[in-house]
Every structure is written in structure tokens, then in C-alpha cells.
Amino acid sequence: MDAIIQDEILGTVAADRAHVWHHMTQHKAFEVQDPTLIVEGKGMKVWNAAGKEHLDAVSGGVWTVNVGYGRESIADAVRDQLVKINFFANSMGSVPGAKFAQKLITKMPGMSRVFYSSSGSEANEKVFKMVRQISHQHHGGRKSKILYRERDYHGTTITALSAGGQNERSAHYGPFTPGFVPVPHCLEYRSQFESAECYGERAADAIEAVILREGPDTVGALCLETLTAGGGVIVPPTGYWERVQDICSRYDVLLHLDEVVCGLGRLGTWFGYQQFDIKPDFVTMAKGVASGYAAISCTVTTEAIFDMFKDETLDPLGYFRDISTYGGCTAGPAAALENMRIIEAEKLLENTFMMGRRLMTNLQVLQDKHAVVGDVRGRGLFAGVELVSDRHTKLPADEAHVQAVVSHCLAQGVIIGMTNRALTGFNNTLCLAPALIAKTDDIDQITDAIDRALTHVFH
Ligand code: PLP
Fold this sequence. Notes:
- The protein is α/β, with parallel strands linked by helices.
- The chain folds into two domains: 36-65 and 348-458, Aspartate Aminotransferase, domain 1 (Alpha-Beta Complex); 72-345, Aspartate Aminotransferase, domain 2 (3-Layer(aba) Sandwich), CATH 3.40.640.10.
- 39% of the residues lie in helices and 16% in strands.
- The chain has helices at 3-19, 27-30, 59-63, 72-84, 95-106, 120-138, 158-162, 167-170, 199-214, 240-250, 303-307, 331-345, 348-369, 399-411, 440-458, and strands at 38-42, 45-48, 53-56, 113-117, 145-149, 180-183, 219-225, 254-258, 282-285, 297-301, 373-379, 382-390, 395-396, 414-415, 417-418, 429-432.
- The strands form three sheets. Strands 4-10-9-8-7-5-6 form a seven-stranded mixed beta sheet, with helices on both faces. Strands 11, 12, 13, 15 and 16 form a five-stranded antiparallel beta sheet that branches. It has a four-stranded mixed beta sheet with strand order 1-2-3-14.
- Helix 5 runs parallel beside helix 12 (331-345) and helix 13 (348-369) packs parallel to helix 15 (440-458).
- The longest helix is centred in the last third of the chain and has 22 residues, at 348-369.
- The chain is globular and about 70 Å long.
């Protein structure tokens, strides 16, 4: 590397160390690590400040860069839009905002309205507010409780954390917003029910039991991740969704699916829920919407829900009194439109389906080979490898060992992740979410690195 460029990069690394408070980072440990600034990316690869190349198996760390790095056409679309008109808020719309909403809805039969904001947490908060407002205006304020599932995550704000089933995220941040009630998780590998028969139905029945306990006339909505991502990569078992849909209809409980991770192709269909027979009332999405090229999230709902906010005669404050400043920035929908075009033009849904199958096959080979692999699970290009110190008792592997596997992969030039750490009791799952452009060689390189890391750490 050119000496001047290297000096400049080292200066930037120093500035980063001195002034940036990083997300999810214990800075005491971080200060003694090698420079980790990522300075460039192309396709599935990224380069750090030291010039080292890595294959990224987690799409930017938090499963976001679905179409890969260095997409000039997205950068061009954003640039062209920003010089034309970058922003306008409130009722004044924008061309890309209208076009993206129209296009998105064509992929979501039954849905018709898109509310823009800029993060997954916000998109979920909008649903919580809509549900509370519906409760006030249509149920005398009674149907205000929102159910969420253990191990799910819906964002980082205090109310999103109130709906969060991961204690590592919420510890020390209370008191929380009242009215959020947990239901059991549905991970069959760590069954909470005595019999394994019809597991999906049983896990759904546990939701019904909570509704009955709380009183159906007090429960407004059920908020679930379609596939629990950071909470351990949990694919709901067969029979679950059909029963959940039935329960929601029976007790007039609105179904909110958080597709912040699963949306825009991650599971091999435009939306994860489309692989099951369900009709949600709300779907939220963020990460893959613009693949990290601009900040955008969407709260999508039906015309029936939208109509509930239109009757002025009922209440002059009856409209949805909510705004997100950057929901009015045109960079988001401009990037999202081009992102969606790429997914279609390059047939990335089909690729995700095929590469997902390869990934799962490779992971099953690792499970046969390494006793420490207790379970492998996933769908499309989102997969988890749960590590246990004893297959019989399923005692979780030590977090330090799981972290050592991640570090060994990094040393081999492959970035993988692990599910949330500390306090949760489910910090033992390796997490993989490569970009939807992954090829066979990339998948094999990822699983080969994990294979070597497991041998290194556990043999
Ligand atoms: N919902 C899910 C399922 C997530 O995984 C996340 C973030 O990882 C969020 C919501 C919050 O999104 P954001 O970080 O954009 O606020």
C-alpha cells in the first residue's frame, strides 16, 4: 500500500479509537485489538485498514447487505435522486417513495400501505403505536396488550426492548413500557413441552394459553419474527403458523410479523412469511430493503387497518400522528427501488434458495463430523450452528469457545457471527447470513473455515 495512503488510514484508525463509541462494543477489550476499520467492499468481499481481505458471511455484520458491496447502480440511483430533490417531509411525497411503495406492494398480496422510517426499531414502534391507537379508538382502550415471543428481538428503543425476548439487550435499561407480555419460544431442539408430538401446534397453543390468561379482550396484537434471527436462528416448526393464524383470527388479535431480517429475499422468497399459509396485518422490514446503501425501513399494512385511521368524525386526533424525519429522505426509496430491481434481474431469490440448500447440506456434514455441533437450522441464506459441550444433555458450549471459533474463522479471512452474548443462555450459536449473491465456492469457503475452526478449538 502507498505510504501516504497508509499514513492517512492509520490516522483514521486513531481517530476512530479516540472518538467513536461503537455499537455493541465493550471498549476496554476493543482498545487493544488490531485495527478493524473496513475500508472497501466488492461483492462478498471486504478489506480492512490493514489491507486484509475477508469473505463476509454475515452481510455487513448484521445481515443487511443482501445484494453485496460496491453496487454502482445503487450509488448512481441515490446520487441522481439527491441532486434532483433530496428531502421533503409530511404530506409532500416523493417520486421514489411512491414508486417503491407501489412496487413493494406488488410483492405482498393483501397489503396496500407503506409507512416510511429509517430503522427496524422505528418500523416496529410504528406498529405498536398503531395497535394502541386502534385500541383507544375502536376498543375503548382495552385491547392494548401486545404479545411478543421469548428470544425474539424487535429493536433497541425502550419500547422495542419492552417487546424484546432477549435479556442481554434489555438488562439495565428498565423500567420498560407497560403492556407487553411474553409468550414461549418455539425452538424444538430445546423443547419446553413434555411431548415432542405436533410440536408446532403445541408451541402455538402456548400463545393461546397466554391470550386466555390475559383475557382476549385485552390483547391487541401478537408480534413475532418470522424466523428468530439473533435469538438463536429459530425456524418455527411445522404446523406453527397455521395454528397461530387461527388463534389470531379467533381472538381478534392483529398479527405483526417482524421481517427486519427476513424481508427482501433473505429466506429465498420476497418475504419469509410467504413460505407459509399466513396473512399478517402488519409486516415490518429494514435491513435488506436498501442493503445498507441508504437508511430506510417500512411498516406495511392492509387497507382495512389504514381505513381505521381515516374517520375524522370519530376523533379529530384519529389520524396516525407520527413522523420520522428521515422517512422523508429520498435516498432510501431510490436505493430500495434499485435494490429490488437487482434482486429480480439477477434472480437472487432463486440463488438464495439454491445456495441455502448447499449451505445446509455442508452444515449437516459438519454436524456428522464434530460432536460439538448439536443442531443446525435455518432457511434460505440465514443459518445457525448450535454448539453444545454434550450432545446428550445439550449443555451449551462455553461462550469463550464459541467466540474462539468466530475468531479462528476471522484469522482465516472469513467473517462469521454468533448469536447474542452474555446473560441470555443462548449465546452458543454460530450465525451465517451471506449476501444473496453467494456462489457455491463462497458457501464452501465459509463452511471449510468453520470446519477448521471447530477442529482447532475443540480437538
Ligand atoms: N427486528 C429484528 C428482527 C432485528 O434483528 C433488528 C436488528 O437487528 C431490529 C428489529 C432492529 O432494527 P434496527 O437496528 O434497524 O433498529
